[in-house]
Structure formats: C-alpha cells, structure tokens
Amino acid sequence: MLGALAAIGILLWFQSSVGVLASIATAWGAFAQWLLFSCLAEHLRLQKKLAGERFQGRISGPQEEIIWACSQCHHMLHSETHCEVCRATIVADDVGLNS
Ligand SMILES: [Zn+2]
Q1: Cα(78) to centroid of ligand 1, in Å?
Q2: How far, in Å, from the CA of 68 to the mean position of ligand 1?
C-alpha cells in the first residue's frame, strides 16, 4: 500500500498519466484486499468465539450492551410497551431522570 502511494508520487513527479492511473488502481486494490481480509479475520474470530475456541486479536464493536428483560418472566424484551411472552405491560421507570 505504501509502495503504491510512493509510486503515485514518483509518477506525478514525472507526469506519467497512465502510470498514475495504474498506481491508483493498485493502491485501491491493496485497500480492497486489506478490507476483505480484515472482514474475513473478524468473521473467523466471531465463529471461534461462538464455538468456545481460543482466538487471537480483538473483536470490534461495542464493549458494553444493555438488554432489557421482563421482570415477570425474565425473557428479553423486543417491544417498548409490553412483553411478548407473558403480555405484561411495561411501566416506564422515571426515577432519577427528571432530577
Ligand atoms: Zn414477560
């Protein structure tokens, strides 16, 4: 990638338009390969994590997530108004929000 960028600079210095286009295409190809292999590596890490295997590297994304659960049946909530499992109505907890 850095080599392709250096080649673009050298070709701009010598004003070779065909060489500049070829170097830009090479730099774009290098970036696309880096992006593709980064995505594949992330996918393999996620599959290893799901399978319970050890993996190297770090999985990107949020480090902390909040999942709301029903206080009656403890199932995960998908609606903001009621629980789909036990049909309990959700009451907003405004304690501390207006102070
Ligand atoms: Zn429920």
Answers
A1: 11
A2: 11
